[in-house]
TrEMBL record:
Annotated function: Catalyzes the condensation of isopentenyl diphosphate (IPP) with allylic pyrophosphates generating different type of terpenoids.
Name recorded for this polypeptide: Isoprenyl transferase
Co-factor(s): Mg(2+)
One Pfam family cited in the UniProt record for this chain: Prenyltransf
Residues bound to Mg(2+): D17, E210
Top-level taxon: Bacteria
EC number: 2.5.1.-
Catalytic EC class: transferase
GO biological process terms on file: polyprenol biosynthetic process
Family affiliation: Belongs to the UPP synthase family.
Amino acid sequence: MIEGKAKMPESVGIIMDGNGRWAKGKGVPRLAGHNAGMASMKKIVIASSNLGVKNLTVYAFSTENWKRSTEEVSGIFNLIVKYVKSELAELIENNVHINILGDYSMLPEASVKSIDKLVSETENCSGMNFNIALNYGGRDEIVRAVNEIIADREFTDEPGISRAVTEDEISAHLYTGSLHNDIPDPDLIIRTSGEERLSNFLIWQSAYSELMFTDTLWPDFTPEEYEKMLEAYTHRKRRFGGREKEDK
């Protein structure tokens, strides 16, 4: 068990990678890999809540994933409907609050209705925030934030009034920002499957995140390995661009 809960990451992001390779290695359809990945996600959500992680953000479907086959994309969306039907009661029982990052209005109607239900029925839950990045892309998020600022701002010709966009404004208008879901930047981002890149995930918010990678494919990623990574995080020294006194 992790000692020193005060050092636990408040916010964790996970790039759930490797479902397809897991399926290929076992000689089963890719959708079987996504189904196994869904089961792994459930275990990690429970583990996160038990370990005291306050915010868990998972990369479920990116804006680039539309390039995959129609069969695979449709299957992923059907899994969303299945997940809501099978897990909603348990999520509410465990006081898990659901946020969606991304524009999921483009998804099939059944998926949109399921997601709406997931969000609305966990709205009053006050436990861990489980944030699902769905039809999400980091660059797209930043563009949307800037366009929101442009649309909302009342321009004036008065001299001395600055029209410059600030970092704080952009942060506030992101899906994670104070004007939307108010989710803190990730302290730690984990990626499974051996790939070592962010792939357009929380690229603004991850400026000072700690990064960890594992060769384990997502369906094989266990709560035990997850806990070990959180334990390793507690021993890291975060400087946010500065230096500690002993480094001077």
